[in-house]
Model the fold of this input.
Amino acid sequence: MSQETIIKNNQSEDFIRIQDLGYLFLSKWYWFIGSVVVALTIAALYIAVTPPIYTRTAALLVKDTSKGGSSSANAMNEFADLGIFQSNTNINNELLALKSPTLMKEVVARLNLNTSYTIQTGLRTKELYKASPVWVTVLNAADTPLEFDIEMLADNQFKLSGFKTNGEESKESLQGVYGDSIQTPAGTLILTPTPAYSKESEGNSVYFSQASIEQVSDHYNKGLRAELSDEKSTVISLSINDVSPKRAEDLLSMLIKVYNESWIQDKNQIAVSTSQFISDRLDVIEGELGNVDENISNYKSRNLLPDVQAASSMYMAQSTENKKRLMDLNNQLSMAQYIRRHMSNNESKSVLLPSNSGIANANIESQISEYNTLLLQRNNLQANSSEKNPLVVDMTQSLNAMWVAITRSIDNLVLTLNTQIKNTQSVEIETTQQIASNPKQAKYLLSVERQQKVKEELYLYLLQKREENELSQAFTAYNTRVITPARGSDFPTAPRRSNIFLVALAIGLLLPAVIIFLIENMNVTVRGKKDLDVLTIPYVGEIPLVGKKKKFIPGKTDPEEATKGLAPVITSNNHDYVNEAFRVIRTNIDFMLDHNTSNHVIMLTSFNPGSGKTFITMNLAVSMALKGQKVAMIDLDMRKASLSRYIDRPSTGASSYLGGLTNSIQDIMVKGTIHPNLDIIPVGVIPPNPAELLLNDRFPELLEKLRKEYDYIFIDCPPTDIVADSSIIGRYVDMTLFIIRAGLLDRQMLPEAERMYQNKKYKNMSVILNGTVYEQGRYGYRRYGYSYGYHSYGYYGNSKN
Done:
């Protein structure tokens, strides 16, 4: 495997250790403090703006009507033959019924919950449920969404503004007197003061809003929670959240009330239908009975007939029994025929059938009761869903089948009754023929009186059933009992300040941590010595960042400005971490150079502008001069001339010598301005053809002359691969110091540096890491574990920097 492949693999396996990540977080402690302060401030503003939410709950016991035990249940048992009370409660159905949109819409309408009165208190709005100083009556468009401001003025007056109707705003402003109707863009309104109105209310504003009852009911229906308190119980727990605790209590109480009323109304539908049927029959029979009585009276008066029954007592006994039999059969036949006529109309399928009508057929009575019960269930389910609901369709089919079965049963009953009547009448004819001695008038009277008694008994029977039906309605009790009325804590359930502040604190700590983590992982530049460990290039040392860390931006940052006004940081008596870093590099260079030769030429280059070549060249040369070596520096970056700025860029320099304008090195040399042992050859006038000047014979001639006079010659070169100057200069030097700037060089360029070393593009190529960050007495990126501090050796206390 090649060294370049190893470098790329190591770069792809780069990761952050928890310990190093902790060091990064500590170095950015101010980020965390600022983030926490901002997060807590936002949380405090949210709490100040958000109105408190209160929770109110109620517990409702749904009675199991399949079990007895109550006084009302005992009373129902006494009238069980009516077939009206035979129904069991399904708790799951009641849960769905309590959340019915129809019930909630009735609750909203009764409590007028579609209107709202609010005032602004600080940063939040306050709901004035039943505490508003004014009351608004909308004479038209009572269900139209509208909003406006009410400003209460003195002298029993008010001002309306900010109208918004169906989303359309109006800037019109109106003024009126309480109690008078006023025409507004929202319709005709009447404003009246409430008991909460006082002199202190004058000058204040109330915001009125009205929404659609449908929308408000949907809102509360979504917020209503109805659930069983326990799987084995029939106790339903109701709860709802609202900004007004009183409104939440009223809503739950009214919901229970409306639910009970709806349940009673539903259960009494059979009894009401039966009562109407009995009343209609009583009216008909009463008229018929009156006609029969009048007929008998007129006939006896006209014919002066006495009581003829005593004359034929022997035969009358048998006749009486026949009459009783015929009367009973006629009653049943009359009831059966009435119900059959009632069922002959298809429109009757949507209404309940008469129950407990007196038909002496238990099977038919049971079928009618089951049909009425299923019809009620189908109507309830259809009201809460639609006709296309599969359950509704199934119930409708079952009802049609039951309707056909009941019709056939009644037809069979009518046929049977007619047969029995004919048989009984035949026996009666034979009996009456035995009364040959009775006058025709007696026979007529007997026939009429028979009809009279039939109708009279039928009338009394229906009267009795009507009273029983009324009693059944009186004994219909609520199927629920309120265990716990609507109540709740006076402390709001939302927003929870402690939870919000904890979440804000967590976000405040987490957000900068995530940002730092992402920035660090997205950083593709060289960050420290660990990134260079994959290189086989000799490592000379590292230079910590001097002063405030600045980011070099190619094309925007001027390298000349980086050296403007600067002086070398290396001094003889300074032992701070920067001076010690240069002394370490000086020692390593001496160790790496060939000591069999002298007068070494060292060039400094890099990949990027702004890598710190000029800074390192100057201070490294000064450090060599401090140990008594004769040192010369040549500024051959003939396009920027950054090194020349240390000596104010004289007009005569290396370009003058290389261009043949002078043959004397002394004419281009600036001696001892920075240190007595340090001389500098500036660029001079920036030439238009630096590469051509370096290619002529005068450049190696210049180096040979300098080798004779100086122990070390340092050359500040332009970046490699940008121009050809570095490659030309590298032919004549003894050592190449390649500068890598931390935070500037892309790690993807490290394989290129390794390739130059392996191909021996530069002689004795070595690496210096520049710009490592100094943190709390240590420099370098902590995450790589190679940071160390010179203060640990006792030098840091002597720093003069």
Q: What stands out?
A: The first helix runs from residue 3 to 12. The radius of gyration is 55 Å. The chain has a mean pLDDT of 81.
